[in-house]
Amino acid sequence: MTTPRRALIVVDVQQEYVDGILQVQHPDREASLTNVTRVMDLAAARDLPVVVVQHQLPEGAPVFAEGSPSWELHPDIASRVQPGHKRVTKDKSSVFAGTDVAAWLAAQGVDTITIVGFMTNNCDIATAAAAEELGLAAEVLSDATGAIHLANEAGKVSAEQLHDTLLVLLQSNFAAVATTDAWIDAVESGQALVKSDLGTSAMQGRAAFAG
After folding, report:
1. Which H or E run contains 182?
2. For the chain, what is the domain count?
3. What residues make up the domain containing 15?
4. Which of 92, 74, 88 is nearest to 35 (CA)?
5. Which residues contact 62 (CB under 8 A, 6 or more apart)?
6. Tell me, what CATH number does 122's domain have?
7. Which of 2, 39, 140, 194 lies at a CB distance of 3.0 to 4.6 Å from 175, suitable for a disulfide?
């Protein structure tokens, strides 16, 4: 197995997710933020390409309005941004939609993206799914991401249920899911993370729920 050519994608680690309408509920926000900073520090030490993303909507929007407190990067992230990092704003879920991120990654020779940040249930899963079409392997760090409680006409789901379910879904096809500690070990040893596949996950699922 060849060593992955990784890039770190830091997705929307903005103040909105800390104290706004979209406040992350699971896992613990502070723990997730700490893990994002750990990942950014290792990326800096290993000279990995880094993309720092901010969701941005027009002035007056209820969330992520350009220049508003909601739009600002969390201070622990802002303090780690370096001149060589790719900075990008987006107005859709995937970091690839309407941006030049895919072209920039290709220019860096990247074949694997590591996704951290918010939210598991929106921008993270959209980015991981979009990576497939671009021929990029994806990794999602389970404890450096997070979800929110949701309720609408279709029903309701807790942030914990949503986060955990989406991680199982991602691991079954779209991305290798791992903890921050496991990712750090993989980077330091030059290894790829293990990802399942839909067939294997289906067989294991049948066995898990048999009877």
Report:
1. helix 180-189
2. 1
3. 6-208
4. 74
5. 21
6. 3.40.50.850
7. 140
Q: Is 1 part of a structural domain of the chain?
A: no
Q: Is residue 149 part of a domain?
A: yes
* Residue 48: predicted pLDDT: 98
- What letter represents residue 126's amino acid? A
DSSP string covering 127-169: HHHHHHHTT-EEEEEEEEEEB--EEETTEEE-HHHHHHHHHHH
Q: Helix and strand tally (H, E) in the chain? A: 8, 8
Q: Which residues of the chain have pLDDT under 50?
A: none
Residue 191 near residue 1 (C-beta atoms within 8 A): yes
Q: How far apart are CA 11 and CA 145, in angstroms?
A: 9
Residue recorded with tokens 């309407």: 98
CA 90 from centroid of its chain's CA atoms: 14
> What's the N-to-C CA distance of the chain in angstroms?
38
Q: What's phi and psi for 176, nearest 5 deg?
A: -80, 125
pTM confidence score: 0.97
Let me know if residue 152 belongs to a domain. yes
Q: Which residues pair with 114 in a beta bridge?
A: 8, 139
pLDDT number for residue 124: 98
